Amino acid sequence: MYKTARILFLPTLSVVLFGFSIFHLIFAAEKLPKVAPLVEPPRHSFSSGISGTGLVEAQTENIALGTAVAGVVLEVCVTNEQLGQRIKAGTPLFRVDDRHLRAQLQTHQANLKLAEAQLERLEQMPRPEEVPPSEAKVKVAEANRTRLKDLLDRGEQLLGKKVMSEEEFTSRRFTFVAADQQWLQASAEDAMLKAGAWKPDKTVSAASVEAARANVANIETEIDRCLVRAPVDGQILKIDIRPGEYVDAAATKALILLGDLDRLRIRVDIDEQDISRFRPTGRATATPRGATDKRLNLKFVRVEPYVIPKKAFTGDNTERIDTRVLQVLYEIDIDQPEVYVGQQVDVSIENQ
Fold it and tell me: Does the CA dihedral 240-241-247-249 come out positive or negative?
């Protein structure tokens, strides 16, 4: 009997312990409370459609302003207090150091004045006070020629009467010829004086004026390039520049970010595997991250037909980095949405 009880003890104990385990699992285990997610996951707005990730941007797109001239920033015309304020196209934003260009401008302006003065001097030739002496010189030469011509005529008569020698008559004749040439020279010089400056000289001087003006215009253009202005009407989104900083024309950094916020748009990335199911005519809504109860109605604007590598990532572990996306632009169909430029949203697009 002892042996039989010993044989039955272990199976009985096993059955009791197994029953106790089942009882503990069913009745004694602590029931964990249901924990709500910190952020409600986005839900698709339509029964049939595709989804994409979008970034809010300005109506004019986000304009990253740089500089055309490298140098030290001399002045920043806008402050952080003006962030979000609307400015007009042409408003000065910042200026690169242009003091050396302004010094060159003064030199070129002086050269321009010199060239213009030389051209004006040629155009006003002859001087009024130069004409009377020239005319008087002609009259003197003419009077001298007339006097010597009279002496020559008398000498010819005397020579015929054998009163004057051949040598003296020859002397009078050469003297008259010299006086006649002097009269011709004075007349030619008077005519040249009254004719004014030579036309080729005026042409050369006028070309010098145009070259000087071109140099002045070139420096003025370089000075104007040092001052960066707003290209369009819009709001200042970001200022990342300070006086004294060196800026380079080849830098990829956006010194000032500008955009028109009157109507916001969303740039949606549609994965390449969903492109075939995309319909531009389908309805679309957007849900801001962290606000799944808010839905923004979207209006189709355009498709950018070039498929590009994906740049905006959601952080999902299953997301591939070698995916290419089609970018589609939608406009938010409300006047003042409670979203900001650069904010990420989840977009649902109907494909029926």
Answer: positive
Whether residue 231 contacts residue 257, with contact meaning beta carbons closer than 8 Å, is answered with no
Question: What's the rounded Cα separation, in Å, for the pair 11 and 17?
Answer: 10
**Encoding tokens for residue 94?**
């910042």
Closest-CA residue to 326 (of 313, 343, 308): 308
Contact yes or no for 286/330 (Cβ under 8 A): yes
In the chain, DSSP assigns E strands to 49-57, 63-65, 71-76, 86-87, 92-96, 227-229, 234-239, 246-247, 256-259, 265-271, 284-288, 296-309, 324-332, 344-350
Amino acid at the residue 269: D
The predicted-structure confidence for 228-278, as pLDDT tens digits, reads as follows 999 999 999 999 999 999 998 887 788 999 999 888 999 999 998 889 889
Question: Tokens standing for 205?
Answer: 């001087």
Return the SS3 of 76.
Answer: strand
**Closest by Cα among 237, 231, 251, 216 to 115:** 216
In DSSP notation, 283-315 reads: -EEEEETT-TT--EEEEEEEEEEEEEE------
In this prediction the pTM is 0.67
